[in-house]
Description:
Blueprint: H1 2-26, H2 37-64, H3 68-79, H4 90-105, H5 110-184, H6 190-219, H7 221-257, E1 317-321, E2 340-344, E3 353-358, E4 361-366, E5 370-372
Antiparallel strand pairs: 1-2, 1-5, 2-3, 3-4
Amino acid sequence: MDFNMKKLASDAGIFFTRAVQFTEEKFGQAEKTELDAHFENLLARADSTKNWTEKILRQTEVLLQPNPSARVEEFLYEKLDRKVPSRVTNGELLAQYMAEAASELGPATPYGKTLIKVSEAEKLLGAAERDFIHTASISFLTPLRNFLEGDWKTIAKERRLLQNRRLDLDACKARLKKAKAAEAKATLWNDEVDKAEQELRVAQTEFDRQAEVTRLLLEGISSTHVNHLRCLHEFIKSQTIYYAQGYRHMLDLQKQLGRFPGTFVGTTEPASPPLSSTSPTTAAATMPVVPTVAGLSPPGEAALCLEEVAPPASGTRKARVLYDYEAADSSELALLADELITVYSLPGMDPDWLIGERGNKKGKVPVTYLELLS
């Protein structure tokens, strides 16, 4: 019991001495042992690494899970060391709603058929997103968390010890200085000076030892950067795969929707502006954009009479078909991928369409399904 009381009293005395030394340094009333420039640079680099790792980690978490309530829930499950419950992605939930809507509104109607197709694509997008989140969490977020909760905590602990050793060292320096000043006035025995010098040597040794331990940990930040660089490459790889899958799924969806004939036939609403700005004089974009109103003339334009259509005097061009296209009505020409057709434009035509000819057949064709050849 007496031993514990003495230890508590000793600890309280050390804490008080350090507090006094720290306060006097702040007010410029005591000297402070300065670390060398290399050590200070290592400290600044470590602090920057910690701060930016925290910011990148938090923003990546927001990217992967935009819902703050869901993030809090996942954090609590992680702290309780319990498995996070499976959660459907927004794309999968949208797919479910679209499928249910199609079932109720009529799966055989043009709207119902389209809802089903879009639902299937959204489900694939949701699954791709789930895989991306899982991969990114393991390959990127986990290493960042491990650094903040492991290596950084060790560095912070050793830095606090180094700070305490420095305060002890400077307190010993101050005591020795006072002892020598008292000795010079012949008011202190020599053994008090010897005691102060011995305490200073011990404090200096402990400080040097702790400084070396802390320096080695700080220099390990370079290895941390190398590890985070590797993890960053893995994150970009998983993100690339995710977006490539999304592009492929949506491209397939557009091609499927382009085969739905007469989807908008009979509507009384004004035609929407065309989605593509491709003109007959430029090559089509790599991803086909399904014409907004397939097979209908623009408002105010008379219906096209194909029998009376003749190639313009300026000539015609050859075009290679990029994707299969099913004609929506008799004014359009059905297309097969990779076939060659002759195309030309007429004054007043919608720039998203051309007149296409194959043998003795002719009809309107969407520009975005063609590669115009020079």
